[in-house]
Design goal:
Blueprint (H helix, E strand, L loop, with lengths): L4 H6 L3 E7 L1 E2 L12 E2 L1 H13 L3 E2 L2 H9 L7 E8 L4 H13 L3 E5 L23 H9 L2 E5 L12 H19 L5 E3 L9 H11 L3 E3 L6 E2 H6 L7 E2 L6 H5 L12
Parallel strand pairs: 1-5, 1-11, 2-3, 4-5, 5-6, 6-7, 8-9
Antiparallel strand pairs: 1-10
Helix pairs in contact: 2-4, 6-7
GO cellular component, one term: extracellular region
Main location: secreted
Keywords: Signal
Length: 257
Amino acid sequence: MEYSASTNQTSDRTIAILSFHKIGEPPPNGWESWFYIPETTFVDHLTYLQKNNWQVIDLATFLQGLTTPEILPKRSALLTFDDGYQSMLTTVVPLLLKFAYPSVIFVPTDFIGKHNSFDTDCEPEEPICTWDELRQLERSNVSVQPHGVTHRAFSYLSLAEQEEELSRSKATLEAGLKKPVDIFCYPYGDDGQDPQTIKKVLQRVGYQAACLYGGDPVSVAEASANPYRLPRLAMGPDTDLQAILNPEAVPSVVFQS
């Protein structure tokens, strides 16, 4: 097989989409869950990326790279955060700014300025960002994108309800933030019983990509071939990022928190 210069430039490019929920301690009267990552552990994750040649890219670069892979570095990382918790602004953004890292936050639009009642009895009650706080995140290089309207799993919705979740969440954020939104995150990583039909709806509504929950890093070619089912690394306090990003155990930089 003959390889062109462009093929050589893109065949070894890898994308790792990291998916976080909460950084820091649970609220008063709350409890620990797997979705809370201590700040020191989160800083270790960011430090590993920095010291091992993983370049954290912004959403615009990521989306452009799906159609123009040669613009991406050999190791690209996209940092994503689900649900829109206020701790993103108070805890996460100051840490990201120290590393000069951009990120993406996915917000269920019916819960803007409210609490995570979609997780009642599963997770402690946490406040979700208000509109003003979402605008502040945008100014801090955090791209706000849709996580549905009601945070319901698509497998339990009709096709009409799924389309409503996709179109209304997009329209709500675009109107409230005065900007286009381009990527969707399926609540619970559930894209329903018929991903091919959902793909067509996503395209018709105007999305360029959509994210699942769980999975491994992928090649740029794999991401480009199926941008509406993008896997994300589920990040928790015990996630061994080095083992995931360096499965062949190539010697890497050792760091201490």
